[in-house]
UniProtKB/TrEMBL annotation, chains A, B:
Provenance organism: Tabrizicola oligotrophica
Superkingdom as given in the UniProt entry: Bacteria
Residue stretches spanning the membrane: none
Matching PANTHER family: D-SERINE DEHYDRATASE, ZGC:162816-RELATED
Protein name: D-TA family PLP-dependent enzyme
Any GO molecular function: D-serine ammonia-lyase activity
Length: 354, 354
């Protein structure tokens, strides 16, 4: 990234395509090596082009969190989609049914009888059954059944529900609480086997644990999203280096009101307020002395070393704390292409909140 | 808000038009009473329709933070616009010059000679001079000149710069640090008068201080944005009540994995991660026992009283911590109109980051 960047307006989100493709390749290689299928989460890039690049590299499908994202990806030709979400309510179930009719493989997750009942009602008369995986709470304390026994009970319910087919087990994050995920999933799968239920897939995920991921003798598939762009939270956790961060916010210094302070034109509307447990709001590449100490909507406040002042008009490249949410804040991003060009692309699945 | 809301998909952002119009009226009345002109900040609603409603109610113009927002508002017929931002760089200055040619009144702020030099270069040959106000840092520690003497020096520079006209003084937030704003602005204005410079406007702003705002014998104008919708941060500060909160997120319970926990389909992609100094991530109307304890992108985790369980499919109305950023996260919002209808409207100036 260099000269052509001077010609674009800030704040901008710039993705280095070569780094992104290298990140895709590297984690696909890891999964291939440890015997895990890879199903990338498209929430990070929200781009059909990168979803296709992930498939070309060897991924066996994609993960979405929202039907709206899956619809956009299906429009783009992606045809093997897992929606890791409880789909609830007649409007969403109707959309899910329509989506199932136009992709070759669709699956969702569920963690309760109520959700399964809704799915069954929507798919009872469908041409093909819907695959439903049981979400397991292995310590993440979000959604998910609480015990292996509950997982078995819900799997049995799915396997007998009209229009549905039991698709396996799903959890997030990979490690669970204090590494309890593997034990939970292993116990659940053993209970399924004892009950005579086939468990075709056991899927876990999360970029923080990507490099230590392995089957643990139970996982068949891994889901990761952030790894394509990487971000400050992953650098801080030792998962990648700054050189692996493909997604960067380009900002301009608009004020240097005091010797120890500068202000940039990137605030929470660009970097988001996500901290992910970190102090400050991003990393300014090439400026280890700078700290982004505060954000308001359109301003980022930097603590500056008075011995290394910034100039108004100077441009800075920032690795955000959490890159996935930044993709959602730009209608269009800039792609620094492998041939040295700069291409503006719409973020296909941005803003698909439903 | 009631029956028709059952027919829309969640998560949704719903604005009660009657409450919004009442909020507009109430603060306009306050400003009229204390002798302040009101220049609402459109960042909260980003809607041409509400900007026009604010003008109809008596506002003397609007405030924008970005040229992109101002362009959208100009397209919609708003023709008196203050952009409270340092406009930096040739691309932005060209857009500013074009914008000046199609509205009847345009002003910007500046806090440095570098910014003034750029503005002057862009407007030196313009048909009309650009009004430039000096931004004063009265304790907010963002942009702004640091002392009344600096304000005078920059005002003198503006007044002699080709293409520019000195427009007055601007600060944010209203109270400054420990109430120092009035003293700073008074001293700056007195210095201007002594130097023979006319100071047509002294403008301050911020919804938190709206009800205690008055001229303080120096202010001529007040800028406020959040007051049209209000939010949890303003309720917590005693500025308004829950009944005054026009902007609400409608969410659905999608999981009740444990007796003390429920999960809704509104996460940080909807409520944002903005805390504004508060604990938790929003207020669930009618459920004082609930706390929104954690957000991920598409999930909100609620701490639930086991004696008052929630049901999957149940809908909740949430007042967000910071409503301005929520407007930016939805392409379209729902307006609960005064006649009891429900109308979907595009958020005109959403996502205008440049």
């Amino acid at each position: 990234m260099s000269a052509p960047l001077d010609s674009i307006e800030t704040p901008a989100f710039v993705v280095d395509e070569a780094i992104a493709l290298r990140n895709i390749r590297a984690f696909q290689d890891h999964c291939d090596k440890v015997g895990l299928k890879l199903r990338p989460h498209i929430k990070t890039h929200k781009l059909i082009r990168f979803a296709k690049a992930q498939i070309r590299a060897g991924a066996n499908g994609i993960t979405c969190q929202k039907i709206g994202e899956a619809e956009v990806m299906a429009d783009g030709g992606l045809d093997d989609i897992l929606i890791t979400y409880n789909i609830v309510g007649p409007l969403k179930l109707a959309r899910l049914r329509a989506l199932a009719g136009r992709v070759s493989a669709l699956a969702v997750t569920a963690d309760s009888e109520a959700v399964v009942a809704g799915l069954s009602q929507a798919f009872a008369l469908a041409a093909r059954p819907l695959r439903v995986l049981v979400e397991c709470d292995t310590g993440g304390k979000r959604c998910g059944v609480q015990t292996p026994a509950e997982a078995l009970a819900l799997a049995l319910r799915i396997s007998t529900a009209p229009g549905l087919r039991f698709g396996g087990l799903m959890t997030y994050p990979a490690a669970g609480l204090a590494g309890t995920a593997t034990a939970f999933l292993t116990a659940a799968r053993e209970a399924l086997v004892r009950a005579g239920l086939d468990c075709p897939e056991v899927t876990s995920g999360g970029s923080p644990d990507m490099w230590t991921s392995n089957t643990g003798r139970v996982l068949t598939e891994y889901r990761a999203g952030t790894y394509i762009y990487n971000d400050r939270s992953l650098v801080q956790r030792g998962v990648c280096t700054w050189d692996d961060c493909a997604g960067q916010v380009l900002a301009t210094v608009v004020s240097t009101p005091a010797p120890d302070r500068a202000v940039i034109d990137a605030g929470s509307k660009v970097l988001s307020s996500d901290l992910l447990g970190l102090a400050d709001h991003g990393h300014v590449l090439g400026h280890p002395e700078l700290r982004i100490t505060a954000l308001s909507e359109e301003h980022g406040v930097l603590a500056v070393d008075p011995a290394r002042p910034l100039a108004i008009g100077q441009r800075l490249r920032i690795v955000p704390n959490h890159v996935c949410v930044v993709s959602n804040l730009f209608d269009r991003i800039w792609l620094a292409t492998e041939d040295g060009g700069l291409e503006q692309v719409a973020v296909d699945a941005r803003g698909r909140v439903t």
